[in-house]
Amino acid sequence: xxxxxPSSFFQRYLLPGFVFQSVVIAGGYGTGRELVEFFxxxxxxxxxxxxxxxxxxxxxVCMASFEFARVFGVYDYRTFFKRLLGRGWFLFEIIYVLLxxxxxxxxAAAAGQIALEIFGVSYWLGVAAVMAAIGLLDFxxxxxxxxxxxxxxxxLYALYIMFFFWCFSRFGxxxxxxxxxxxxxxxxxxxxxxxxxxxLAVIPAVLFTLHHQRTRREALGAGALAGVIAIVPGLxxxxxMVGRYPxxxxxxxxxxxxLEILGSRAFQIAFQVVLFGTLIETGAGLIHxxxxxxxxVWAERGERLPEAVRxxxxxxxxIAGTVLSGxxxxxxxxxxxxxxxWAFLFVFVIPVLTVGVWKIRxxxxxxxxxxxxxx
Length: 375
Known about the structure:
- The chain is mainly alpha-helical and 375 residues long.
- Helix content is 78%, strand content 0%.
């Protein structure tokens, strides 16, 4: 048998970060509403400081999680959290499914709002379109999803860089002036941690990319880069919104406000098409993690997952998310995310940075002791 070709630098160090960014964006900052709720409400300066906190937390947790997955060979969230939390692993699954439903609802509500405000069609037509596309992508399986998430992330990066510089050319003076007049409050550290905590729940959708990592350096390097890769488009978006602070705080979809100011119908349509793509890949990635968890259970029994299970799970979750989308985008983000943030902090973030790191160190110590030759 021929040996497998070595993984590329991109696969070992950058792919996990780009997939993480792809899954985070729809629930994290795709519409801009999330950036308002967690960052801009702390003021421009406080928002930047909160973003720095969130980035540091993302990188730290990704480093610990990636190395934990590598050391113990756990690449689906069920086995990952069984190893991390023991009998309490099901707590993560409960809050993950709850967050998944809320993210799907946010995705549906954002798509409906975009369809209504930008294209002038029915809100529910936008909801139906994005949900159908998520289902089709998820049916494509692991390879299709991996390629879609990584490729679309590059498209999104290019678009957000163009978006920021265009906004800066139009009202860069307002951005600079607002920063000069603003003062940072005291809520930004908590805001940064809260934002980071609920978004880290998407790590199960990244685990399948970690098979490429073979060394500690690769796992830690990829984890450190993941936080930075994921936040850069959000930071650019935030800086652009500062130019319309504080009026933009009440906008259901802040991205639309800035796009209207730019006044280019072609770029507005291109932006919304890319945003639709991010909404689709986020939903597909999160649902795929659930299907991979189910498939692993069947594999442990020595059986193959029936073909009907994956579409059934996807359809059921999509229907539930569609129903929840009726509550509206602002309420879903302000209340839904806020409620689950603390649960993820105590069930995932703190355990992986404490118990997880301790278990990694213990495993390394045992490995080192076993490698010492007998005298």
